[in-house]
Amino acid sequence: MSTSAITVTVKLFAAYQEAFDLSELVLEFPEGTPVKAVCDRLIAERPELAKWRDITRFGINLIFVEPETLLQNGDEVVLIPPVSGG
User: Fold this and answer.
1) Mean pLDDT, 10 residues at a time, over the chain (86 residues)?
2) CA 83 from chain center: how many Å?
């Protein structure tokens, strides 16, 4: 049985947005992929983001979710690193 691909829109903020110089990416993943895999793929492309891996929170369709939450086709994913400010 072949696994079908799903497409998700990833909104980038803070360190992620700076690393990619974009506010949004559209990525394809195999069906059954957890949301944390989005973070892993971005870190694979921009290794300087690795320091944020364990402290990034995930949102799908404006709801905070656990890293193991499975992606669905058409989901909007948000990666939220800690934001420092004054």
Assistant:
1) 86 94 97 97 97 94 97 96 66
2) 16
| 61-64: long-range contacts, CB 8 A cutoff, minimum separation 24 | none
86 inside domain: no
The whole-model pTM stands at: 0.88
- Has residue 8 been placed in a domain? no
Residue 82 pLDDT: 75
Kindly report the CATH number assigned to the domain that includes residue 27.
3.10.20.30
3-state secondary structure of 43: helix
Structure tokens belonging to residue 61: 């369709």
Domain count across the chain: 1
The torsion defined by the Cα of 55, 7, 24 and 36, in degrees rounded to 10, comes to 0
Which range of residues forms the domain containing residue 75? 21-80
